[in-house]
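>> received
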Amino acid sequence: MENNKIIKYDAGLLQHVGNVVNITSKLLLVNSRSLKILYLDDHLIFSNGVSNCIYKKFPNAIIKCIQDGDKALEYVSNCLDNKESLDLIITDINHPGLDGINFSKAVREKEKNNDHKIPIL
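>> returned
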């Protein structure tokens, strides 16, 4: 009560505020979350540099580096079949095996049988 007046709260508004607090709390936990990233690139010096940049922002990240598109597609297939989530795929365009564009298309085809869609950069 404020100045002998009853203040009414709308339950919908309280629910909305609760949702905002929950989402904000989850966003604050991102840095402590273990992101699982597949990095496909045949230039080891460049992939080490990118990996170091990712580790600075997400120190608990798990980065799997693969230099061949065919092997990377096999890895993605195994992850999808075993219901292991991948949070991100980073790929170069030119490398041994499937190139980056055909690799990305193949991943999208394999995702059709699963509920998990993986962002590809």
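>> The CA atoms of residues 45 and 51 lie 10 Å apart.
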